[in-house]
Amino acid sequence: MRSIANERNLNSKKILLRLDLNVPIEKGKITDTTRIDKILPTLNFLKKQKAKIIIISHVGRPKGKFIKKFSLRPISESLQKKLNTEVRLIEENINKIKNKIFFKKFNEKILILENIRFYAEEEENENNFAKKIASLGDIYVNDAFSCSHRLHASIHQIPKFLPSFSGLQFDSELNALNKITSKITKPITCIIGGSKISTKINIIKNLIPKLDNIIIVGGMANNFIEYFGNNIGKSIKERNCNTLIKEIISLAIKKKCKLIYPEDVLVSKSLKGYSANKKLNQIASDEMILDIGPKTIDNIRKIIENSKTIFWNGPAGYFENPNFANGSIEIAEKIIEKNKLNKIFSVVGGGDTVSLLNNIKAVDNFNFVSTAGGAFLEYLEGKKLPGITALNSYV
């Protein structure tokens, strides 16, 4: 796979740049620009190379229909401000644009095609549609790692027709993933949360042979607490997953990976309530587990202290209520402490975990924070991503 970072002969080239600019928009205003901010280095690199940039992206799920609220206009305006460069939204129907000569009439160096998901052919992975888009540019760059698990035309098919490269953010995602899956500095620890074991079982099974420690927190930890004979009251749990837990325990023992789950917890009778620290055998039937307790925090901090690489996916508790955010904050602060001393490589993935770090303004204190969501998790499962396959197949 070739990276655009290594290319220098891009002057006047028309670059079809696939980005993931699927940011939250409310009443025409962007409420979180994280995904936009992360692709600015690629745009600035291409600007410096004096390339003509034609952005392909999407917002929401318009399902092949032109729906105004899913327009990329707010994103176009945001990019213009952030880059201090004229940016034009191209509203013409892609199917009616004859070829790349069409773009000569625009002086702007950055153009954005309107929402690619306005066309049903995109999600249908239609070959001729991809060929049509490819005819509009000279080079294709995929800097949408977060979409690269999708069998969509702009991700999977375009590389058949143009010289194709990965973008700078795409490279960063892969580099971070490789450091926790193949180019590992041990000891390596994974802290994994979420409400359902079934959604993370393949990730856990794929990672355990590579890990020294796997720490189970969040809602899925409740299943482990109950499995080992404790009452969990009204706590969230996934039903019928004892077989999965046995499988995880057995694999961890076989691969000599230490499995850790909470030894004490914070409980309340409601999500809006105050916290009470309980041992696992003290949880009442009308209480719910909403965070890890101080003994568990101390144990996790010690494990982080002795780790060289850490991957964190899923908060330790119901952090939306500050009374149950302490476990997650303590984990974050310990990793940050090690990061500042350059004694750990830290990777964070998952929307809730990123939200937590944004809340405490700690995103920049980790080596890599991924916004790739499904693609990030599928890569950790060991699946082949269509976007990576395409870039490797057509070089």
Give me a quick take on this structure.
The protein is α/β, with parallel strands linked by helices and 395 residues long. The chain folds into 2 domains: 4-169, Rossmann fold (3-Layer(aba) Sandwich), CATH 3.40.50; 184-374, Phosphoglycerate kinase, N-terminal domain (Rossmann fold, 3-Layer(aba) Sandwich), CATH 3.40.50.1260. The chain is built from 14 helices and 17 strands.
Mean pLDDT: 94
* Overall radius of gyration: 23 Å
According to CATH, the homologous superfamily of the largest domain is: Phosphoglycerate kinase, N-terminal domain
At the third CATH level, what is the topology name of the largest domain? Rossmann fold
Tell me the fraction of residues in β-strands, as a range: 15-25%
User: What spatial form do the alpha-carbon principal axes imply?
Assistant: elongated
Widest sheet, order of strands: 5-6-4-1-7-8
Task: Work out the number of β strands.
Answer: 17
Specify the helix fraction band. 25-40%
Structural class: alpha/beta
CATH architecture of the largest domain: 3-Layer(aba) Sandwich
Largest β-sheet summary? 6 strands, parallel
For the record, give the distance between the C-alpha atoms at the N and C termini, rounded to a whole number. 7 Å
